[in-house]
Amino acid sequence: MKPMHRLYAGIATLLLAAAPAFAFVPTAPTLDNKAYLVVDFDSGKVLAESNANARVAPASLTKMMTSYLIEQALVTGRMKETDPVFVSEYAWCRGTSKESCMYLPLNSQASVIDMLRGVIIQSGNDASKALAEHMAGNEPAFAELMNKEAARLGMKGSHFVNATGLPDPNHYTTAYDMAILARAIVRDSAHYYPIYSEKEFTFNNIKQGNRNALLFTDPSVDGLKTGHTEEAGYCLVASSKRGNMRLISVVMGTNSMQARADQTRALFSWGFANFESAVLQTAGGVLATPKVWFGKGDLVKAGLATDLAVTLPRGQRDKVKTELVVDQEVDAPIAKGQQLGKVNAVLDGKIIASQPLVAMEPVEEASFFVRIWHSIMRFFSNLF
Question: Which of 112-121, 217-226, 233-242, 322-331 is predicted with the least confidence, judged by mean pLDDT?
C-alpha cells in the first residue's frame, strides 16, 4: 500500500517523550512537593516525574510565557529592544508586600529590553502587565496570545488569564507543560536566554537580586524562573548544563525557598549521575536520496529537520545503533519538509527514539506525458 504523505510538524520537536522503564538506574529521589519532573533537554526524555500532569497553580512561573512571547517578538522583528513601553495606572505597581515589582514609575516609559529583564530577573508584575498592554493592547488580549502559544507548543494542561501568575481559578498549568515551555525558551530564545542567568538587575536606582538561589551556588545552572503564592507554594523551573548534557527540572508546590532549591539540586545530581545524552545524527545532512515517481527530478534529498538525540543510562551509548527507514514509493509533488520515512535509534532490538526523515527540497510534479511514462515503468517494475 502506498504510504500516506505526512507533513513534518516542527512543533512535534517540543513535545516531551515518554519515559521508558530503564534498567540499572537507581530510583529517583522522593520529594515532598505537589509535582516534579526532570527531563533531558536534547531528547525530551522524561527521566523522572511525580504528578507531572496534575493541574497546579503556576504563580510567577507564568512569566516564562510572558517573557517567551516578548522574546519571540524581538527575534522576529515585531519589537525592538529600544522600543519605549508606557507604564499605565493598571500596570503600575504600588509596592505592596503581596507582589513582586520592578518599581516602574507611574506614567513613565522604559525600553522593552529593560522591562524584559524586569520580568525575568525581578519577576516584576508591573513590567509583565506593561509589556502585555504594549504587545496586545490589554492584559486579557495578551492572555489570549499566551493560550494560543501554549496550544502551539503542545501545553495541553495549561490555561492563562493573566501575564503575572496572580491567583485565578482559571489560571493553571502542569509540571509537564512548564518543561515544554522551558525547552522552548532555551532553544528558541537563545539570544535572550543569558538574561535568565543574570543574578541582579538595577532599575530606577533600585537593585534587586534573582530569586533562583541555584544561580549563586551551582555554576552549571543558568536559568530559569521561580514562583510563589500561598496557593502555589514555592516553585522553581531550572536548567543545568554539565558537559554536553542539559537537564530541565520542574518543582511545584514545595513549602519553602530552601526546599525548592534543595529538591532541584537533588534531581540534577540524580539525573547527571545516572544518565548520559548523545546526538546520534545531526539535522541538515543528506541521509538518503530516494527515487521520485512523477516528478521533474528523479531523486530527492532527504535528511533530518531535528537532531536525533537519545538519553540513556550511563554506559549504554555504544550499544545504540541507528536505522534508516525510507518510504518505498515516493510520488511528486513533494513539499520541503514532507516526511519520507524515519530514522530510528535502536537499543537491544527496541526503538528508543525516532525522528522523521524529511525532504530537504521540493520536487514539482512532471508533465502529463512524463507521468504516464512513469506509471507504465512502475507497473512493470512491480511485476518483477
Answer: 322-331
Q: Which listed residue (34, 63, 129, 342) is catalytic?
A: 63
CATH topology of domain 282-381: Peptidoglycan synthesis regulatory factor (PBP3), Domain 2 (2.60.410)
Count how many residues are written for the chain. Answer: 384
Task: Indicate if 296 belongs to the active site.
Answer: no
- Residue 185, judged by CB atoms within 10 A of its CB (0-12, 13-18, 19+), counts as buried
Catalytic site residue 158?
no
Of 34, 43, 45, 60, the active-site residue reads: 60
Helices (H) and strands (E) in the chain, counts: 8, 19
Q: Which CATH number fits domain 35-274: 3.40.710.10, 3.90.1150.10, 3.40.1160.10, 3.30.429.10?
A: 3.40.710.10
- State how far the Cα of 261 lies from the Cα of 266, in Å rounded to an integer: 9
In angstroms, the CA 148 to CA 146 distance is 6
- Quick: pLDDT tens for 323-342: 999 998 899 999 999 999 99
Q: Which of 100, 123, 189, 249 is catalytic?
A: 123
- Is residue 45 part of the annotated active site? The answer reads no
pTM over 0.85: yes
- Inform me whether the pLDDT recorded for 20 exceeds 90: no
For the segment 254-296, what is each residue's pLDDT rounded down to a tens digit?
Answer: 999 999 999 999 999 999 999 999 999 999 999 999 999 999 9
